[in-house]
Specification:
It is a single chain. By secondary structure, the protein is α+β, with helices and mostly antiparallel strands. Helices cover 28% and strands 20% of the residues. Among the domains are: 49 residues, 2-Layer Sandwich (Uridine Diphospho-n-acetylenolpyruvylglucosamine Reductase, domain 2), CATH 3.30.43; 101 residues, CO dehydrogenase flavoprotein, C-terminal domain (Enolase-like, domain 1). It has a 5-stranded antiparallel sheet with strand order 4-5-8-6-7. The longest helix has 18 residues.
């Protein structure tokens, strides 16, 4: 681990200024469950850690559920949001995506903002002796011809096939969440679907955030689809494990007919992945197993599996079918 400075921010402006002064060499620390892990591995080598936890006492730590939607401060802990009765009732996909992530101990520490921005678990990214374009631009991608069982089949590029591993983000992209930020150039709002960047030929640039830009909150608009929403996660073991494939789905039904649908995939793509292709198949039609299977085919039509992750395509398709039928069967 390199030597680094630790700074405890006093307020939002102070946090942004403290981080911006060190540009890309600064990291915010919230729960620390990701950033400290990667510092110990020497994957991240910040000059300065800016501790933002004091901001949790302010609006950054608030949960509000109104008729307009759900407002989540970026420093709300995962466990707090997962257990919130209004979120469980009105936005179950959000509560489930959090509850199925990591362990209870980690969820007690980890913040929502930190969860969204967690780094990939690609083993070649985590082990610094391997070439990795994301960690060291231009060095190559060890996963392309390596052990790529955990890697992505959607949104990949010749430079990087690392999976985006978070769960919560799939629920947010499905529900058209908006991220609010405070940065050196002021405040802004970013549609969740535009926050993460496809790897392309610059996999080291993971989001559209500028150095020193702080996520302050996340807003999820209310809608007729949010109550009938569900997160299904397939993993190698049933707890404390990242997704092999996961599905966030939200349905607005008129009897068996689908008025509106939102569908996102996790564990199979390089970024949180909204499947407009699957949604187009389902919207306006009678939802049954046949239609769900057709939607699953559409979702993976563009998949580019590698040697060891071919199984993710049938696993992902099966997850879509199950998630849709389970959401349809929900009693709300
Ligand atoms: C063993 C293990 C298993 C796990 N399993 C899962 C899983 O199954 N599913 C899942 O989704 N996650 C899983 N995780 C990841 C875990 O959920 C994340 O580590 C956690 O959510 C990160 O939150 P944090 O507050 O600790 O972030 P930190 O470690 O504090 O920060 C993470 C990153 O976000 C940045 N950051 C933090 N807050 C902000 C902010 N407000 N604005 C801008 N930047 C910010 C930091 O600078 C850093 O780069 C697992 C982690 C471990 C260690
Ligand atoms: S998949 Fe991405 S993160 Fe993994 S080794 Fe290749 S470039 Fe690095």
């Amino acid at each position: 681990m390199n030597r680094f400075g630790y700074y405890k921010a006093r307020d939002t402006g102070d946090a942004v200024a403290a981080a911006a002064a060190h540009a890309a060499r600064a990291q915010f620390i919230a729960g620390g469950t990701n950033v400290v892990d990667y510092m110990k591995l020497d994957v991240l080598q910040p000059d300065r850690l800016v501790d933002i936890n004091v901001l949790a006492k302010d609006v950054h730590g608030r949960i509000d559920v109104t008729s307009e939607g759900l407002h989540l401060g970026a420093l709300v802990r995962m466990a707090e949001a997962q257990d919130h009765p209004d979120i469980k009732r009105d936005y179950p996909v959000i509560a489930e995506s959090l509850m199925l992530a990591a362990s209870q101990q980690i969820r007690n520490m980890a913040s929502l903002g930190g969860n969204i921005l967690q780094k990939t678990r690609c083993q070649y990214f985590r082990e610094t002796s391997w070439p990795c374009n994301k960690r060291q631009p231009g060095s190559g991608c060890s996963a392309l011809e390596g052990i790529n069982r955990e890697h992505a089949v959607l949104g990949t590029s010749p430079a990087c096939i690392a999976t985006y591993h978070g769960d919560f983000a799939q629920a947010l992209i499905a529900l058209d969440a908006i991220v609010s930020t405070a940065g050196p150039n002021g405040n802004r709002q970013i549609p969740f679907g535009q926050l993460h960047r496809l790897p392309g030929d610059t996999p080291e640039v993971e989001t559209v955030l500028e150095p020193g830009e702080l996520i302050t909150s996340i807003d999820v608009p209310a809608g007729p689809h949010t109550r009938r929403s569900h997160y299904l996660k397939i993993r190698d073991r049933q707890s404390y494990q990242f997704a092999v494939a996961s599905v966030a789905v939200a349905l607005d039904l008129d009897g068996d007919r689908v008025r509106d649908v939102r569908l996102a995939l996790g564990g199979v793509a390089t970024v949180p992945w909204r499947s407009g292709e699957a949604e187009a198949v389902i919207r306006g039609n009678i939802l049954d197993e046949r239609l769900a299977a057709k939607a699953a085919e559409a979702a993976f039509a563009g998949a580019e599996p590698r040697q060891y992750n071919k199984f993710k395509v049938p696993a992902g398709k099966a997850a879509i079918v199950r998630a849709l039928l389970e959401a349809k069967a929900m009693r709300i």
